[in-house]
Amino acid sequence: MGASRARRLSVLDASFLGMETRDTPMHVGALQIFSLPKNAAPGFVKSVVQRYRAPKAIGRPWNLKLAPVPLGRLLPAMHEADEIDFHYHVRHSALPGPGGERELGELISHLHSQPLDRTRPLWTCHVIEGLHDRQFAIYIKIHHALSDGVKGARMIAASLRDKPGTSLAPPWESQAPAARRGKPSAAPRAPASLRWLTTLPGAFRPLFLRTPDAPVVLRPFEAPNSALLNGRVTGARRIATQQLDLAQIRRIAKRAGASINDVFLAVCSAALRRHLLASDALPAASLTAGVPMSLRADGDDASGNAVGFIWASLATDIEDPRQRLAAIRASIGAWKQHLQSLDAAARLPFATLTFTPAVAVMVSGLGARLRPPMNVIISNVPGPEHPLYLGGARLDAMYPVSIPVQGLALNITGVSYAGKLNVGFTGSRDRLPHLQRLAVYAGEALAELDALL
Amino acid sequence: MGASRARRLSVLDASFLGMETRDTPMHVGALQIFSLPKNAAPGFVKSVVQRYRAPKAIGRPWNLKLAPVPLGRLLPAMHEADEIDFHYHVRHSALPGPGGERELGELISHLHSQPLDRTRPLWTCHVIEGLHDRQFAIYIKIHHALSDGVKGARMIAASLRDKPGTSLAPPWESQAPAARRGKPSAAPRAPASLRWLTTLPGAFRPLFLRTPDAPVVLRPFEAPNSALLNGRVTGARRIATQQLDLAQIRRIAKRAGASINDVFLAVCSAALRRHLLASDALPAASLTAGVPMSLRADGDDASGNAVGFIWASLATDIEDPRQRLAAIRASIGAWKQHLQSLDAAARLPFATLTFTPAVAVMVSGLGARLRPPMNVIISNVPGPEHPLYLGGARLDAMYPVSIPVQGLALNITGVSYAGKLNVGFTGSRDRLPHLQRLAVYAGEALAELDALL
């Protein structure tokens, strides 16, 4: 194993390894649902398994495994594995009858609960047969130290084709030399000028000084306690999925003068509100959501993790769905307006400074004991706009599966794809025994908004 | 959670928890294969799942979970769980087509690699459909701190019936009050007399002083190094199974003047020898096996872990199968003869004293770095003699799945049942990539012995 091929991890990536516990495995997943091609041979799924086990090349980060850490060195390093046991990483699985959403949800819940083997490249893939309606599924799990969910979804999409064809190339296949496809370093680049530093005190002012006429900028750690959403989590996961119609979301957004993301947050808010009310556990104050958003300037592809959080009120203290949507829109708007008022160079440092304490609490495991930084994380990630294919099989949906941590038992992430918003709910099994209902409620909340607006 | 219901673990049971690592999970498993009843309804397997998830009562050890350990207390304790999420513990799984031995072996290998969740009672059960030949399977995994494989197999057998019927009661169902069905304490009982102590020095003499005319009593740690069998293990497992005919084994044993166990060891020896020869890795000196045996006096049911090891030569340095069987028989005979020459009260302490260093090496994780105490562990456990049934489904086979540890990458265990010896091979995935061949070779070795003798 050449030392030249070892790569030190960034502090952020390393933290996903260092803070990982039995109760909070730090991997993300993607669940893809495909329709079998018309007249597919009976062995079609098997042929996907075989092709996935025999890539013609292997690209980063799929070939990276943990290197032994020399004493005295703080951060773990990764190196390229000499040999990869693809028969281990790629598994052929099956659902019991009737092969519906319930059976698929149970299998993915169990698969997502299992920690990755640290002696191998930190990913696995399950190709799953036995779904009803002539479908099959592929679930891919990768450690957050190797890839976040957004990048993972992109790598998967890049392995698919725009048209039905014969290519069954897996996401880890790469024709380019592996060493040249490294993940960009997450080390912060030195900014060209430090003038933005002088603007920072002003940037924080609205968080602490509130004036009656200015819109309220929600502070981190301003979330009410919710045992269901913010209690201690254990290692087992429960997942649920919902597919929302993007045209319907757009129609509602247009009528309400809101963004697609506002409507998505309102749908999640309605589902959470209904679920907590039914459990007699809705806090009097509104739930708050941490909403990750890209702070990358247009055309800047090099800066690594340029992701900040917007702190949004979910307005769960408001009964009327229309007023709730308006309040969510106003809360997001106040943050956006504030960010836009800042020097462009100050936006990322500002977002990082509000975001860092929340991340510190989450990855330290203290989350279940401290006041939560937010009640839930809700992401909305743009994905491919046009249908994609694996060989002749059409991709019907791609659901993100994410990471609950101590103090944040639920993650809701939506990925858009070919006219749909595919929403994955990932929860701690013990905290959220009826997670499936959230998915059902979200679908009903969208229909309700459509009827009201 | 009543403190009165907490139970301190014995040092031995606690060691299985304390020494557990990502690379060496400490659970045992049992794989049962059933034939579907004639004219079984299509939902038969589903009805087993449902019944297994709804026991009418729950007995020890199935309801025990780890209690938080107060600071300053050395040993972990178990207490009875107030609520058990049977939907978590009992899973409905399926094999991909064609549902043969290969697909079943791959699934069980992966299931046996996954550590148990320490926040719940330390067991899981998978009811598996999709086997060919109208069969289904049940795989049960339990932590060694709750049960060893022998006791686990007995609990499973006790839940089955002698005749086809309608009872689908799971092994964890118990009508008796749970608290009264505790595992007997493993704390050693004070012996009535200490006279046996004076015999111990004599008991050890043959291990160190060898005389030309006396049979050689094999010493612990007298095993040659074998990277394949005694190298470092990682967390992934590989399992293989073989069903041997007991009548055939008995016939061979009778002709050779050997015991059933001698023939079983000879079969394992032949398989190992052939496999290591093919890999050009057969040590010049014979491999040795640790063979667990009960040291319980007849009628003594109370003494807990009265298990010692016999240290047997596998005579892998001998080419002729008949001479190999004779050498194995002589090696076992020398130990047995020596044990029988001891005061009955000294047998268990003696066996414990030779066995303890081996256990210490194994559970400490030092096994991969020190000279191995033995090359392989081979157990032969008597099981039910007559066919058993789950409802109308006949149990066709029950295979043990065991624990590789650092320095001992392979375990071979046979359990007799209804005229067959069901042999489970459990190996470290990375050390033994062709484990399946061992199972095939074992079947062929039995046929060869039958033809020669």
Description:
Two copies of one chain form a homodimer. With 453 residues, chain A is of the alpha+beta class. Chain A has two domains: 3-159, 2-Layer Sandwich (Chloramphenicol Acetyltransferase), CATH 3.30.559.10; 200-385 and 399-452, Nonribosomal peptide synthetase, condensation domain (Chloramphenicol Acetyltransferase, 2-Layer Sandwich). Chain A has twelve helices and 15 strands. Chain A has helices spanning 11-18, 44-52, 86-89, 101-113, 149-159, 200-208, 227-230, 246-256, 260-278, 321-341, 344-364, 435-452; strands at 7-8, 27-35, 64-66, 77-80, 90-94, 123-129, 135-143, 237-245, 288-294, 307-313, 376-381, 389-390, 393-401, 410-417, 420-428. Chain A has a six-stranded mixed beta sheet with strand order 5-6-7-2-13-12. In chain A, strand 12 (389-390) and strand 13 (393-401) form a beta hairpin. In chain A, helix 8 (246-256) crosses helix 9, helix 9 (260-278) packs across helix 10 (321-341) and helix 9 packs across helix 12 (435-452). Chain A is globular and about 65 Å long. The termini of chain A are far apart. The model of chain A is unreliable at 175-192 and 299-305 (pLDDT under 50). At the A-B interface, strand 5 and helix 4 of A face strand 5 and helix 4 of B.
